Amino acid sequence: MDVRATLKDHLIKERAASIITKGKQKSQLKCDTDSVAGCVSQRACVYCGARVVLNPVTDAIHLVHGPIGCASYTWDIRGSLSSGSELYRNSFSTDLKEQDVIFGGEKKLTRAIDELVEKYPSKVVFVYSTCIVGVIGDDLDAVCKDAASRHGIEVIPIQSSGFIGNKAAGYRAACDALLRLIKPVEGKLPPKAMSLNYLGDFNLAGEVWIIKNYLKQMGIDVNVAFTGDSSYDKLKKASSASLNIIQCAGSMIYLAEKMKDLYGIPYFNVSFLGLEDTAESLRKIASHFGDAETIIRAEEIIEEEVSKVRDKIEWYRQRLQGKKAAVYVGGGFKAISLIKQFKEIGIDVVMIGTQTGRKEEYETINELVDEGTVILDDANPSELERFMTEKGANLLVGGVKERPLAYKLGVAFIDHNHDRKHPLSGFVGAVNFAKEVYSTLCSPVWKYL
Ligand code: SF4
After folding, report:
1. Which of 44, 53, 242, 355 has the fewest CB atoms within 10 Å, measured from its CB?
2. What separation in Å is there between the alpha carbon of 224 and the centre of ligand 1?
3. pTM for the predicted model, two decimal places
4. Do residues 357 and 271 both lie within one domain?
5. Cβ-based neighbour number of residue 432 at 10 Å
6. Which residues does ligand 1 sit against, CB inside 6 Å?
7. What gap in Å lies between CA 216 and CA 194, rounded to an integer?
8. Which stretches make up the Nitrogenase/oxidoreductase component domain (predicted)?
């Protein structure tokens, strides 16, 4: 008996409701649930979800209460850039060992906070709990409260033990921490004041700055970006903006909802990935403010920027036409933009999945893809391998955990999530994306496999 085949079939069967093929099944895709035990999900843990959202707060001390592996796994993981402090690029850890697990880690945590605050003056410390802290039951809230009153700064516990849910629970824990920082401001701006918060951009390779520049040209000020290139002082005044726009809905819609309830700030989703979505997002923002001059300026910027990149995109499209892509990314909104962006350069998406996509996002994905495309939520490596092979994908777009899988299969790969050196947002990012797709897909290396 082929044990491997039996095991693989069994895993697929257990997860049948989380995988559909467009045109073959009419049922709703099962999503936003915990991973199937033993299925080796590609999803990151709760702690990782919280860390990736909060880490770009540049002048905060980020202290991971747990074994060293949790801190090193997420150390400077995304390539977020800062225009000020570089403190966030450290990955401080209490480095819990066997003895701490037996006798408790609270004293070690207290000492670590004291030492860090003395060495690195900061107004806020984020303390992340990890799996083992959830198991041994250290009282993070009490330790942080004591430390806050001792040092006169904010010490915020993040309840993010890896096993207490899925990555989306980490996003919520991070948003709750951010909400603790935001305070009502005096002299709030009028409802249509040209100042907005930009949520769900982590300033990978300086992407926040590109979008800020477009908005500035339209006469709109970015009050604070969550959390790319943000700081304690900027976050404090987040409630003064008149609008929240959200790029990464998976991680930030919870915060936007809360800010709407608490501070009356409306929100909507945007996407600055690809020419079509970038242009549409600028139009949407301009029309929200409703000012004729802003609307005209948005059209001028779109025309100006598209004319700079149109020929370049066309050059890549002619060379990439007919290739097939597989996509496996964190959130649904990015997946939706990637389908459109691949269409712009002549590539079909034949398999697409996310770690934390929501029902409405999967509905949009289903509308956008062609018949026969496999759509899957919270996949494992075995499923990715099976469907990429079955569908003949030439390229996989994913994150750090998907890269080895693609290379083992002899498939080109693009990391859309971590440690990027060039921006993929805005009009300039659309060209960078096309260039990267071309470089990896058309590399001579694939001939030698
Ligand atoms: S919190 Fe748990 S699952 Fe997450 S990295 Fe640490 S040990 Fe692994």
Report:
1. 242
2. 30
3. 0.91
4. no
5. 18
6. 45, 47-48, 66, 70, 73, 130-131, 162
7. 10
8. 45-441
- Of 47, 72, 96, 167, the residue with max ligand 1 atoms within 8 A of its CB, to mutate for a pocket test, comes to 47
**CA atoms of 124 and 160, how far apart (whole Å):** 18
The reply to whether 153 and 66 lie within a common domain is: yes
Domain annotation covers residue 52: yes
**Do residues 163 and 233 share a domain?**
no
Which residue of 70, 91, 167 sits with most ligand 1 atoms within 8 Å of its CB, as the best mutation to test the pocket?
Answer: 70
Distance (angstroms) between ligand 1 centre and the Cα of 236 equals 30
Residues constituting the chain: 449
How far apart, in Å, are the Cα atoms of 428 and each of 181, 305, 425, 439? Answer: 33, 8, 7, 17
Q: Which residue has the higher pLDDT, 219 or 447?
A: 219
Cα 96 to ligand 1 centre (Å): 13
Q: Residue 117: inside a domain, yes or no?
A: yes
Give residue-wise pLDDT tens across range 121-179.
999 999 999 999 999 999 999 999 999 999 999 999 999 998 888 889 999 999 999 99
Centre a 10 Å sphere on the Cβ of residue 5 and count the other Cβ atoms it contains. Answer: 9
Which one of 241, 268, 299 terminates a domain?
299
CA–centroid distance, residue 160 to ligand 1 (Å)? 9
Instruction: pLDDT band for 6, please (50, 70, 90 cuts).
Output: very low
Nearest to 96 by CA among 55, 135, 45, 42: 135
Give residue 155's pLDDT.
98
Structure tokens at 275: 């020419």
The amino acid at residue 234 is K
Going from the Cα of 89 to the center of ligand 1, the distance in angstroms, rounded, reads: 19
The residue contributing the CA closest to ligand 1 atom 3 is 162
Q: In this predicted model, which residue has the larger pLDDT, 403 or 24?
A: 403
Closest Cα to atom 5, ligand 1: which residue? 70
369 and 244 assigned to the same domain = no
Give the pLDDT confidence of 193-223 residue by residue, as tens digits. Answer: 899 999 999 999 999 999 999 999 999 999 9
Q: What is the CATH number of the domain that holds 235?
A: 3.40.50.1980
How many angstroms does the Cα of residue 164 sit away from the middle of ligand 1?
11
Q: Are residues 392 and 265 part of one domain?
A: no
Please check whether residues 105 and 208 belong to one and the same domain. Answer: no
Q: Are residues 150 and 51 in the same domain?
A: yes
Mean pLDDT of the chain: 92
Average pLDDT over residues 60-88: 93
- Amino acid found at 104: G
